[in-house]
Specification:
The protein is of the alpha/beta class and 383 residues long. It has helices at 2-8, 25-55, 98-105, 175-197, 215-226, 241-247, 279-287, 311-315, 330-343, 349-352, 361-369; strands spanning 57-66, 69-78, 87-95, 121-129, 139-143, 158-161, 167-168, 207-209, 231-235, 251-254, 270-275, 289-297, 319-322, 353-357, 376-380. Residues 69-379 form the Enoyl reductase (ER) domain.
Length: 383
């Protein structure tokens, strides 16, 4: 074999054209060196191309629906598949909200187009930007705007979004802390602001918080208690009363006292309320609000219907304030996050939240729907 190989390089016994010199060992060595260098260079190019290809791939949860049915998988996604937007983000943390769990399990028609990456919250670092408002390396966060419903969301390692949907990450928060707060804490703060704008102060009386063990309820209790309000917490998990007392609740009541059909008016009990449950619970809360009180309605855990009466509104002057957190103007978002920085004790976040990896989200979603998870679920997209 060696002889044949050398023959091909000109060292063999085959006749040479007239005038061609016999190759020396040095010539052969040079040719071999050039051949191996070329092979090494080609291999390096292949590795570089492979690395570039891998750099454009990222992990994400993808929901799809077609003739084969409704499918949810953690999969590899090409960056070229990202939707339109002027800011591309390396997502470090997201969350699993109730709405996300509904989308993942397919129990409610949350997703408006397919395929879809769920996740209504995200925090991370700007990878690329076509707007002067944000530059590469900036820390940003997002809540709402239909992301995870009609536009690819945060339960992936990358996202491409409209810059007007983003706000800077608060200086006092890490991405993980911002996601521990997330839409739930942001919505709770918007609800508290609505009560304050109605004129509520701690000396007006007790404040009822329904869905107390959930994300919004947990943050509402923590914020109100720190502001000096006496908070009554309604929950279906009375066995976890100690947790609610740690957040600042003065009293814990069983949600069964509010979740069944009730009367149009009952004894005046609370100066205000924050309700994330809806349905009969919201109707009964309104029936028990004091004269000129206010209720912030921000959720529908029990149901979207409102089987109530106008009696609290026309006989006691009760105000029902709807809390929209999805398309809230930027100024309101900045105000809410600014107030969270001053009015929420970040030391409570480990009590309110737990962290999971992106690979665990699909399995956890049904538990969240079933009410088996307390507080917040923060998602580390790197695991």
């Amino acid at each position: 074999m060696g002889r044949v190989f050398l023959d091909r390089l000109g060292r063999g016994g085959a006749p040479r054209p007239a005038g061609q010199k016999r190759h020396t060992a040095e010539h052969v060595h040079c040719r071999l060196s050039s051949w191996f260098a070329a092979m090494t260079f080609s291999s390096g190019l292949f590795k570089d191309d492979q690395s570039k290809l891998e750099a454009h791939m990222f992990k994400g949860i993808l929901i799809d629906k077609d003739e084969a049915g409704y499918r949810v998988n953690l999969t590899d996604i090409d960056e070229a598949q990202l939707p339109a937007g002027d800011v591309t983000i390396n997502v470090s943390h997201s969350t699993l909200n109730y709405k996300d769990a509904l989308a993942i399990t397919g129990q409610s028609p949350i997703v408006r187009s397919f395929p879809m990456v769920p996740g209504i919250d995200l925090a991370g670092t700007v990878q690329a930007s076509d707007t002067p408002e944000y530059k590469v390396g900036d820390k940003v966060l997002l809540n709402g705007w239909g992301v995870g419903e009609g536009h690819w969301g945060g339960l992936a390692q990358k996202a491409r979004l409209k810059s007007e949907w983003l706000i800077p990450l608060p200086d006092a928060s890490t991405p993980a802390q911002a996601m521990a707060i997330g839409t739930a804490g942001y919505t709770a703060m918007l609800s508290v602001l609505a009560l304050e704008k109605h004129g509520l102060t701690p000396d007006h009386g007790d404040v009822m918080v329904t869905g107390a063990n959930g994300g919004v309820g947990s943050f509402a209790i923590a914020i109100l208690a720190r502001l000096g309000y006496r908070v009554i917490a309604s929950t279906g998990r009375v066995s976890q009363s100690e947790y609610l007392h740690q957040l600042g609740a003065a009293q814990v009541v069983d949600r069964a006292t509010l979740s069944q059909p009730g009367r149009p008016l009952v004894k005046e009990q609370w100066a205000a309320a924050i309700d994330s449950v809806g349905s009969h619970t919201l109707a009964n809360v309104c029936a028990g609000i004091r004269y000129r009180g206010v209720v912030a309605a921000c959720g529908l855990a029990q149901g979207m219907e409102f089987p109530g009466s106008v009696a609290p509104f026309i006989l006691r002057g009760v105000t029902l304030a709807g809390i929209d957190s999805v398309t809230r103007p930027r100024a309101d978002r900045l105000e809410a996050w600014s107030r969270l920085a001053s009015d929420l004790d970040l030391a409570l976040l480990p009590l309110i939240s737990r962290e999971v990896g992106l690979s665990e989200v699909i399995d956890i979603a049904p538990q969240l729907i079933a009410g088996q998870i307390r507080g917040r679920v923060v998602v580390d997209t790197g695991r």
